[in-house]
Design brief:
By secondary structure, the protein is mainly alpha-helical. The protein has three domains: 136 residues, Orthogonal Bundle (Topoisomerase I, Chain A, domain 4); 87 residues, no CATH class; 109 residues, V-type ATP synthase subunit C fold (Up-down Bundle). It contains 19 helices and no strands. It is globular and about 50 Å long. It starts with 5 loop residues before the first helix and ends in a 12-residue tail after the last helix.
Length: 356
């Protein structure tokens, strides 16, 4: 596959930098955080780049769930715009990165079927993936049967993975093996796309997406150990043997019962207060995840001071957009349920540092 050169990246670099300048500022977040209630938050959001997405919906229909759905359209538009204008060698990786949200939609479909939910009840739970999706989402929900829904996925990247996991689902009547299989297959496909890149493009992709893989893989391993008490063999089977900083031996150490704080400190020696945070892992994991997400955000921002004619800048921008949606989701849910600021501010990612 041909590599992208400076000329290939010049146009998309200019486009992405313009989009980067429209990300919410710390001042925007201060105003949103200080909003008196959910309705006040919506008024403020309408004066940001998310405004056009909210203005298309009648005010009476702007429930918290619907608002979250509509603001995600901006992220979907960013992905589709960047994929279409990216150099040819970069498009498969960016498309696969985008499919993260399709995997989430597929898991939401399976959960909806189990709950017996109607399409109208859950349609706004999904990510607005757009025309690139391969999921017959409404038909799957209306099938009201996991096996029938999986059969509808023949010819998609998900059919083989799910059909192989159906034996355990049928035996256990739990979605866990299906969801784990989807997650592991997705990240393997993404890593395979990175391997097809060449030179500095591959180096940047490994660093940026590798940080995302590391965060997810490490949190999986710790949750499996702390919350689910999985056996050493199961934990290893349900995690990934690759990454950027997190190695297979780190995952195996956690599986074997090595002190989790020691493993995390070895991987991220500049991450603050790890030992204290993980003194009680059940309580500390959300804080650890927030620190890792802030670290990821800082790493993505740092990409904008490097070589502009590589894949790193568009990848970093797309991840920053995703993290911004996560922050807005925290704010929307907090304001709609009257959660005090001291309870939600620790989970916001903007304007903070992980002590990299």
């Amino acid at each position: 596959m041909a590599g992208g050169g400076a000329n290939d990246y010049a146009a998309i670099n200019a486009r992405v930098r313009v989009k980067y300048s429209t990300l919410l500022s710390t001042q925007d977040y201060a105003a949103l955080s200080e909003a008196a209630d959910f309705n006040s938050l919506i008024v403020i959001l309408k004066h940001t780049p998310y405004g056009p997405y909210l203005e298309k919906v009648k005010d009476k229909d702007l429930t918290p769930r619907r608002v979250i759905f509509e603001i995600k359209r901006r992220l979907a538009d960013a992905y589709q715009s960047i994929i279409l204008t990216a150099p040819q060698n970069a498009r498969p990786l960016m498309t696969e990165l985008y499919r993260f949200f399709e995997v989430d939609n597929l898991k939401a479909i399976l959960r909806g079927i189990i709950l017996g939910a109607t399409w109208d009840r859950i349609r706004y739970v999904f990510f607005p993936f757009g025309s690139l999706t391969v999921l017959p989402a409404q038909a799957m929900v209306e099938a009201s049967n996991i096996g029938a829904a999986v059969e509808m996925l023949r010819g998609t990247p998900y059919y083989e993975t799910l059909s192989q996991a159906m034996r355990r689902y049928n035996a256990e009547q739990s979605l866990f093996p299906l969801e784990v299989a989807l997650d592991l297959a997705y990240w393997r496909r993404l890593w395979e796309q990175i391997a097809l890149l060449q030179g500095e493009d591959r180096t940047q992709a490994v660093k940026i997406i590798g940080a995302l893989v590391d965060m997810n893989n490490l949190m999986w391993a710790i949750r499996y150990k702390v919350y689910h008490q999985l056996s050493e063999e199961e934990l290893i089977n349900y995690t990934l043997p690759f990454g950027y900083r997190v190695r297979d031996e780190d995952i195996r150490s956690i599986a074997a019962g090595v002190d989790i704080a020691q493993v995390v400190e070895r991987i991220y020696p500049k991450l603050p207060d790890v030992e204290e945070i993980l003194r009680d892992p059940r309580k500390g994991l959300p804080e650890l995840e927030t620190l890792l997400q802030r670290r990821l955000a800082q790493q993505c921002n740092n990409a904008f001071v490097g070589n502009p004619f590589l894949i790193g800048i568009p990848l970093a921008f797309l991840i920053l957009c995703q993290l911004e949606i996560q922050d807005l989701t925290v704010l929307i849910e907090a304001k709609s349920t009257n959660v005090p600021s001291e309870a939600f501010r620790p989970y916001l990612l903007v304007g903070t540092s992980a002590g990299i």
